[in-house]
Sequence to fold (225 residues):
Amino acid sequence: DGGITQSPKYLFRKEGQNVTLSCEQNLNHDAMYWYRQDPGQGLRLIYYSQIVNDFQKGDIAEGYSVSREKKESFPLTVTSAQKNPTAFYLCASSTSGTSGYEQYFGPGTRLTVT
Amino acid sequence: GQQVMQIPQYQHVQEGEDFTTYCNSSTTLSNIQWYKQRPGGHPVFLIQLVKSGEVKKQKRLTFQFGEAKKNSSLHITATQTTDVGTYFCAGPRSSGDKLTFGTGTRLAVRP
Fold:
């Protein structure tokens, strides 16, 4: 079964702690993306990667970091510098980094920071 | 920067009524994609339109790309409770390497 997995589904953390969200895909896609979604809002791009060992900041990268050491994996770290980390985080992938290709989304991780 | 707006933000219809959401971009788009996100779920790709004036149908859903390639619409005929969710349009940025998602239209259907 091909797809994107994100874990965990729900995550609770105390303020001041870094937390890493997992994203794995077995679709053999080159490009991967991280989005943030707040209640009733659209999708905002945090980071994206078009190829292994390379990634670029999206629109709201401050307080976040990523790595792309393997084609299949694109973990996102929410650092303590992120002022409002509580949100729904969605990982996506596409065949290529060019925007003519549809994006496949994982089930998401709901992060709550108190 | 590029903006993609959708109207309405929210619509509540009686089951069986029609529904339309409109997507407007501040820039000309090479293509437009539509996604559906069920409550509590993740966005799922529905369709991509590429040509000016293109119209595509998927059962009760009709998608249209404007002649100027700056706007698009999704029309649902005779809504069903399974249509509930948020519909997003998405267009490529000028850099060509990422999408800008629209603000979304949330559809609620009264049975």
